[in-house]
Design brief:
- With about 250 residues, this protein is of the alpha/beta class.
- The chain has a single domain (about 5-245), classed as TIM Barrel (Alpha-Beta Barrel).
- It has helices at about 10-20, 25-35, 55-65, 75-85, 110-125, 135-150, 160-165, 170-185, 200-205, 220-225, 230-245; strands spanning about 5-10, 40-45, 65-70, 90, 130-135, 155-160, 190-195, 210-215.
- The protein has an eight-stranded parallel barrel with strand order 1-2-3-4-5-6-7-8, surrounded by seven helices.
- α6 (about 135-150) packs parallel to α8.
- It is globular and about 45 Å long.
Length: about 250
């Protein structure tokens, strides 16, 4: 199968933090996800620590066998944590305290210099850098410029699939993702996608030729409550495979 799956275990920690208890443990969930076929694990360390904690990232760094992808805001506190914990990849994302979940991609047109500095800082620490972007031609064009300036720092980008998942029957939403993926790949960047993907809507995204990895969390954790993480991951991998083969 072409497309890899990175499992976001944030909401395992959400359940734990509801009681400030020791369980469920996102590290245990990550191990189960990898055993079921996930190629890596994603977590978002937020400023308010609403789910994943710094200790979780440290333990995941020791336990994850595949790629550990740390989502974080481009501020000094988070960059310093990433430099210390050294995930395989850091994905820079926008973050607002009042949001329930990430609401959109980075604005490289308005904040390109700040993102450029953060990407270089992470790359200097030996961390591969990805950026979370909407499939907006202006942002993809700005990405190409940033990647050229910070050669070797930004290795890829994750396409925000939110608009597609809200209207999966609208062909323009998928077209936008396909165009963004093709342009990014043509610039030599790794292309990922995520946000709101489920076993029911993942097929067309998995079939996009340039997309090599999907980052999926909420549906998998929700499904795991009913059937277990092993079965949830296997269901998602089967749905991705069906999409790739048509």
């Amino acid at each position: 199968m072409k497309t890899r799956l990175s499992v976001n275990v944030d909401h395992v920690a959400t359940v734990r933090q509801a009681r400030r208890a020791a369980h469920p443990d996102p590290v245990e969930a990550a191990a189960a996800a990898e055993a079921a076929g996930a190629a890596g694990i994603t977590v978002h360390l937020r400023a308010d620590r609403r789910h994943i904690q710094e200790d979780d990232v440290a333990r995941l760094r020791e336990a994850v066998r595949g790629k550990l992808n740390l989502e974080l805001a481009a501020d000094d506190e988070m960059l310093a944590i990433a430099e210390r914990l050294r995930p395989d990849q850091a994905t820079l994302v926008p973050e607002r305290p009042e949001e329930v979940t990430t609401e959109g991609g980075l604005d490289l047109v308005a904040h390109g210099e700040r993102i450029d500095r953060a990407a270089r800082r992470l790359a200097d620490a030996g961390i591969a850098v990805s950026l979370f972007l909407d499939p907006d031609p202006r942002q993809i064009e700005a990405l190409a410029g940033l990647a050229a300036r910070a050669a070797g720092a930004v290795v890829g980008f994750e396409i925000n699939a939110d608009a597609y998942t809200r209207a999966p029957g609208d062909p323009s939403r998928l077209d936008a993702i396909e165009d963004a993926a093709a342009h990014g790949a043509a610039d030599g960047l790794a292309v990922y996608a995520g946000h709101g993907l489920t076993a029911a809507n993942v097929g067309p995204i998995a079939a996009v030729p340039a997309i090599e990895e999907l980052n999926i969390g909420h549906w998998l954790v929700a499904r795991a409550i009913a059937v277990g993480m092993d079965a949830a991951v296997r269901e998602m991998l089967a749905a991705m495979a069906r999409g790739e083969t048509g």
